Amino acid sequence: MVFSASGGADFSPRPVEPDPLAGQGGGVDNRPPVAVNGAVDGIHDLGGMQGFGPVVVEPDEPVFHAGWEGRVFALVSFVIGRGLANTDAFRHAIERLPPVLYLTAGYYGRWLAALERLLVEKGVLAPGDVEARLAGRGPSAGAPPPAGAVPARGAMRDVAARPRFAVGDAVVARSIHPAGHTRLPRYVRGKRGVVTRVHPAWVFPDTNAHGLGEHPQYVYSVRFAARELWGDDADARAVVHVDVFEPHLDPHR
Questions:
Q1: Which of 221, 212, 218, 208 is nearest to 247 (CA)?
Q2: pLDDT tens digits for 89-125?
């Protein structure tokens, strides 16, 4: 299916293009999350890790390096916008990719593999449909989009409760290692910081990713000293600000 600039849809077949994940362990891996990345701390949580070399800044970098990247962006936006999956579930699908694929597929390659996984899990695609199309065979009829899908409406929410913390409060990030999705980065867990800003409540990704409800929570910008995070070799003047959800913080006495 092809969407035109005017918003209409062209249902004529599109020529099969090379698989951007070919040769990189692509395709949907339907093993349970624990069988892919272990019970805790998957390869996606790269913050603070070393050995990946400098960040290369590409002069005049285009928005998309290839046409398929733009189509993947549009497909993911459509699936989330129509409520077939939420942003947190999509992030968790990326986190569940096999480690080698995650590190080698590139940004939109990871998006594509995660999208395939979600569409299979939602019953929109049957297992093997993508591989069948690439091999020149017609995909199965598949299933209609799940009933009851609610279009996305953003993630900020109003809550009756007052924030637990205020600007200036000393806090410590909880040391947790959940098997599922979390927005608490590994490198701040167990580290002390100070609240510098109180944001409105947002949908809590740790539950929303797994279909356990939105459970909106306040979000705090927390300032961590670089030496608190990285040790005495870090720049004594440097700080890192991290947005942290309220359930991931405790008061620091």
A1: 218
A2: 999 999 999 989 988 999 999 999 999 999 999 888 8
- Total-model pTM: 0.77
pLDDT tens digit sequence for 129-147: 888 888 888 766 655 666 6
197-211 in b/e burial notation, b at 16+ Cβ within 10 A?
A: ebeebbbbbbbbbee
Find the helix or strand (DSSP H, E) in which 227 lies.
helix 226-230
Q: Show the domains of the chain with their CATH numbers.
A: 2-134 (1.10.472.20), 156-251 (2.30.30.50)
Residue 14: how many CA atoms within 13 Å on its side-chain side? 13
Residue 55 carries which DSSP code?
A: P
User: Helix, strand, or coil here: 249?
Assistant: strand
Helix (H) or strand (E) holding 117: helix 107-121
